[in-house]
Amino acid sequence: MYIKWLCMLCGDVKISNTHRHHEMNFCRCNQSGCDAEEYLTRWCGSAKFINKYDYNFFDEIILNLINQKLPKFKEPNKAYEFIIKMEDKIIESLI
Asked: Distance from the CA of 29 to the CA of which of 12, 40, 47, 71 falls in 20 to 30 A?
């Protein structure tokens, strides 16, 4: 799940990802933040909830790569980094 939120101080809009545990996302002024976990969300500062997306892009990307049999990575960490970057691009398009 992804949570879209707004910093009421600087107007920055962010999306926090529940799949990345213990990752507090801060706005550009660093006064507001959100740590979206699977079963709870921690807020700080003047963050305002906008929307949530109940979709798992990470798993969908993996399933599509498996189905297409592309690409083949020699190092598992490289595959993980590639998928994280793809997920980040999708999330950025939601802002």
From this structure: 40
